[in-house]
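Appendix B. Extra example for self-study. Work through it before the problem class; the solution is given directly after the inputs so you can check yourself.
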Amino acid sequence: MSVHPQSARYDAIVIGGGHNGLTAAAYLAKAGRKVLVLERRHVLGGAACSEELYPGFTFSVCSYVVSLLRPHIIRELQLARHGLEIIPLDCSFLPLPDGDSLARWSDGERTRREVARFSRSDSERLSEFGLTMTKLCRFAKRIIDSPAPDPASLAPRELLKLLRLGRTMKDDPTDLRWLNFKLLTMSAADFLGLWFESDVLKAPMSVSGIIGTFLGVRSPGTAYVLLHHYLGEIDGAFRAWGFSKGGTGGISLAIARSARAFGAEVLEQSGVAKVLMHDGKASGVVLENGDTVHARVVISSVDPNRTFLRLVGEQYLDDEFAGQIRRYKLRGSSGKVNLALDRLPEFSCRPGDGPHLYGDIAIAPSIDYLERAYDEAKYGDFSRRPYINVVIPSLVDPSVAPPGKHVMSCFVQYAPYDIKEGPSHWPRRREAFGDAVVDTLAEYIPGLKDSILYRQVLTPWDLEQEFGLTEGNIFHGELSQEQLLFLRPVAGWAHYRTPIDGLWVCGSGTHPGGGIMGSPGELAAKTMLAAKAL
Amino acid sequence: MPVPTPFHPRTSDLCHSLLWKEWSRYYAVCSYDTCHEREYFALRHAAGLIDVSPLFKADLRGPDAAALLSLVTVRDLRKLRSGRVTYLCWCDDDGKVVDDGTVTRLAERHFRLTGNGPLYAWLARYSDGFDVKIEDTTETYGALALQGPLSRAILAEVAGNGIEKLRFFGSTSGTIGGVPVGITRTGYTGDLGYEVWVARDDALQVWDRLIAAGRAFRLQPVGLDAMDVTRIEAGFVLCGVDYFPAHHCLLDSRKSSPYEIGLGWAVNLDREPFVGQRALRDELERGPAWSMAGLEYDWNDYEALFESYGLPPQVRSAAWRDAVPVYDLRRRQIGQATSGAWSPLLKKNLALATLKSGHARPGTRVQVEVTVEYERRTIGATVVRTPFFNPPRKKA
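Solution. Structure tokens for the complete assembly:
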């Protein structure tokens, strides 16, 4: 601890050293403000962190791939100079239970040939689908790169923003505009069904629509989340995903280096216990060790629930607002299993090393399989046969494992926070959940169990306890329609300001939402600077 | 990653240059020598053998095959007689061209469609209610283009009598080297020529027989570079170069109607409904905004321009497809030249251009961009009718 509360007076204190908190801090520091970032854990990055949990093996503990990180943030914060390196994923691999498999490559012709084995029509319509999604992305990109306009507002500024947004659609043909609205209301499975007939495409593609939500691929509204994941770009190409060198913590560390270079102070092991309130106004924070630090403004990058109900306290909020925050849906639905392996996993459907392993690997053999996994979760169980998204980053970034050894990161859905015994019973079910994941994978990788050197299982409960993600929601709140855009986190408070004077929010629980985007942090900082809040 | 065509064992042995490219996911030879010139002259003076297997192919069988093809393409194929081939294009609902290719009526109820892009999904989306079986035969058949003035003589040796009688855009079947083949009098060189269609397992026998018989006629294996020069001489547009398939265009302005790419003649407008009919009718009434035109560069201008840099005139030996702007005489851009080539036969610098309709009349004087020593300049050019090269033997 090197904060000396009496000696320092800050323009802004950022609660939480995740990538959004660091991004906000970097932008404010760049604008000449004196900024302090306080992180509770011993490593920076929040859910975008890398840790060596087993000697020689570095895990991207939570978040594991990146694509949404906005290119202009990379430029404006000079992240490449500060060590950001992103290695593109070349392949999406789908092993199937019957011994078949499908690999989708960045090479479109190669993909078409693979898909044609299952459906010739689907194989030929892939490029049309890609073109339509690119067109939709062009529109959505404008939405995520600026604060969300409020269509319910009659303020001229909001109306003007809406008008401007509408004009960007004016050159689009009517059917594309219709499709935009369909996207907002359809299920991911139905939306993909507009193009495709085969489950080998629909299943692995539809899962993008459910990640981080407590919904199934057949639930209405999930099509939008599909686009949210399609929007990711690397060097201008949509739908490009990549590994950060050294794990996703590498991104956070690059942002932290940028923030520090601009003059921000960033402290680990400095948990915030309370927002310091003075005359109903936020005037600083009280640390877990009892120290107080004062600042002109406090910016919280933790989720809305934790910010308002725990760090501020309901006594400072009016009923209506507190109610909305209480009802804000978190409902974590996913877990994470990280494995250290003493050899490369071998899939029985495509044995041996090969480029099909260098990207992401989906255990999502059919729409029914995914919906069945959701069925179990709806009634308070984790899925016995879950959707698993596997990556083996050590194949393209050898710095994360000893030579010949590998790290395997498994994102798992569904693991509902509210299991039927109650969330606090998760620690007792943790290993059973881990076993379900490894058993599922072992059906495709027969030698997996013998090659595991170390296993880390993170349930939604662990994500809450260790990473402060309330109810274990990886996006600080579901990306469902009623919690997006001008409704995120709460209608009327979507522009990073809060009902508490001097308190701002900049986490994934604000527009445009979760994923390693940096946009909430960036937009919050820019909004504060424009409002001369500090 | 490309895959080999059925003729790959032979073409790869002969391709000493190692100059290959990807053509619709297949490996294709650019030129067997490091320069394609010898192959070009073989096409125009003797004969060339080109592996065109990567063309997409679909076979349609059934009583409604003609009706389905008439619905999805711009032509009324019920009128196409058995043993005849026709060239056509197909459009989306907005009358914008999706692809172009040929249709062969192999039998009363059996048609084969070829195209530059995948065909199956496009046919399948309209085929509900039609009694027709659609089969993608791209991988089933290998195809060879035997092109050039001596192609008929070679084919007569290997495929027997009757070939002489096969008329321009006719189709027949026969055997080569004991192997059953389909033969059409078609091609992409604008010359006398044939295309031979063979089951992939029999492909090498046909290749060997043609090469052996062709030796006396100076038949050469020919790559895509030489064919590209000849197709420009012939004034044939290339999908993806001179126009873009409508369902792959991010911008509407990139799409073209058949009238705008010189395929208006292929449209049978007044008949039962077909895909794009209404839009095409409206467009014809309105007048198409763009026209495909041939350009001949002014050689004196060209030479003088290079002379002003102290250089002899330089022409690229290969055809080019990096588009350059075309201006009217008042320096307003009126379109673009999308591909072009120096014609060694005509001794002319040729280009295919998309021009605003008012500027595409033959004889119109325009300016085209030419880059010399990294500097962008313009020289004069004249709009001319295509084909630039149209020998009587093509149809004889």
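Self-check: The first strand of chain A starts at residue 10 and ends at 15. If your reasoning did not lead you there, revisit section 3.
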